[in-house]
Design goal:
Largest sheet: 8 strands, parallel
Family: Belongs to the triosephosphate isomerase family.
EC number: 5.3.1.1
Main location: cytoplasm
Pathway: Carbohydrate biosynthesis; gluconeogenesis; Carbohydrate degradation; glycolysis; D-glyceraldehyde 3-phosphate from glycerone phosphate: step 1/1
Strand content: 15-25%
Radius of gyration: 17 Å
Catalytic activity: D-glyceraldehyde 3-phosphate = dihydroxyacetone phosphate
Number of helices: 12
CATH architecture: Alpha-Beta Barrel
Number of strands: 8
Bound molecules: 2-hydroxy-1-(hydroxymethyl)ethyl dihydrogen phosphate
Distance between the termini: 10 Å
Length: 253
Amino acid sequence: MRTQIAAANWKMNLTLQQGQDLLSNILSKSTSVREGHAVIFAVPAPYLQAAKEIVGDRQNVYISAQNIYSKVSGAYTGELSVEMIKSVGVYHSLIGHSERRDYFGESNQFLAEKVDIALANDVTPIFCLGESLEIRESGKQNEFVATQLEESLFHLSADQITKVIIAYEPIWAIGTGKTASSEQAEEIQKFLREHLASKYGQAISDQISILYGGSVKPGNAKELFSQPDIDGGLVGGASLVADDFVAIIDALN
Ligand code: G2H
């Protein structure tokens, strides 16, 4: 059984105090995260250390960066490195969220470098991909996400690819209130798994957690997560409301 994951993406929201209160509140309501499940909070960079302290030694709960740079250190003003996040006890990072791709021009090739630096430093990449509405309407979504996989991940060894968490996020469903139907999400996530299997074999592909992201809410989480190739969710808006995110954690299989 693959790890089933509820991952919060706070994006550029909340003050430190609000973030601490939210995290403490969620953890007090979701006191233990069971074996085979993981709960991840991708928090703004200035809060990584404080968030990590709140999590303490809780099992299966992790703090994640929302982004890292492709170099370990150096003259890269404003960037965040794997060494920096590790120095505050953080071993996960989102990589390639569509907002990074769209607003900051991050290409598949550049994201491959970020994946490499993460894996070389024992940081788990939560690698995001997904198509725009235009691509979906042209019917080319499978081709598009296949290229994202190939150009950013297919250079990895079989051992490395099993350390990556993948998050499929159709851009047209992000923060828009439109969710892909569970059938639409399952169809493309099944395709992603088949494409991974064509490169790495079924046994490896079967070990990789593929999350769905895009307007996941308490009301749709159960149905989405019950699909065979959906191993949990990457949650933006609903992760900012304690009761909603707790309900989403509870919806994991
Ligand atoms: C997609 C998702 C979290 P939301 O960006 O990464 O956000 O749940 O608000 O659509």
